[in-house]
Design a protein that fits this description.
The chain is mainly α and 198 residues long. The protein contains 11 helices and no strands. It has one domain. Helix 4 runs antiparallel to helix 5, helix 5 runs parallel beside helix 7 and helix 6 packs antiparallel against helix 7.
């Protein structure tokens, strides 16, 4: 006899009837809100400086998907990035630096990326390096992508190699195809590049 399928509504009704599940959900939500308040408080100096520069933001994250460019914000973001903000705040600052104009800070981004221990901030720094990279600095990105000691966040650097017109970037992608941290994504990138050639 086939098992009766449970709809999403039925499952939610069951969960809502479970006092332990409801209490766990409330604790998680309370913790999420507490962290959000902590991050907002910690990020206040950056937000104040960005607002003084004319950016109507509540967080660096507000710049991440902003259409257009924001060159005057780049020095502010670079100045705040090394500060001891919580990891998710530094991740937002770094991701806001994933624009070509942030190339001026590549040495800071690279140094911080190599040294970073917080996984949120490390991912944000990888995105920033990839977003700010062009063919002039592609060798630096290749070197980072090859450094297995950096870990799995190197996956986020591959976008710069895919975007690059450099033969060295293509060769590096092929070479990195056996890297355990990168081997799933690289064949996908190489197929996309092949399709673009046609």
């Amino acid at each position: 006899m086939a098992k009766k399928r449970v709809t999403a509504k039925e499952l939610m009704d069951r969960l809502e009837a479970d006092p332990e599940w409801v209490a766990r959900r409330k604790r998680k939500e309370h913790e999420r809100q507490r962290r959000e308040v902590e991050y907002r408080r910690a990020e206040a100096p950056l937000v104040d400086e960005l607002r003084s520069a004319g950016y109507d933001v509540e967080s660096a994250w507000d710049l991440v998907n902003t259409p257009g460019t924001y060159p005057p914000a780049i020095p502010i973001l670079l100045a705040h990035l090394p500060r001891p903000y919580p990891g998710p705040v530094r991740e937002g600052i770094a991701r806001a630096l994933a624009v070509p104009e942030a190339k001026v800070g590549r040495s800071v981004l690279t140094r911080m990326y190599r040294d970073e221990q917080d996984r949120h901030a490390k991912s944000g720094l990888a995105v920033a390096i990839a977003g700010a990279a062009d063919d002039e600095v592609i060798d630096d990105v290749i070197a980072l992508a090859r450094d297995a000691h950096i870990g799995g966040s190197r996956l986020l650097l591959l976008g710069a190699l895919e975007r690059s017109a450099s033969r060295r970037a293509r060769a590096a992608l092929k070479e990195l195809g056996t890297d355990p941290d990168l081997m799933k994504e690289i064949p996908v990138i190489l197929r996309r590049l092949e399709r673009k050639k046609r």
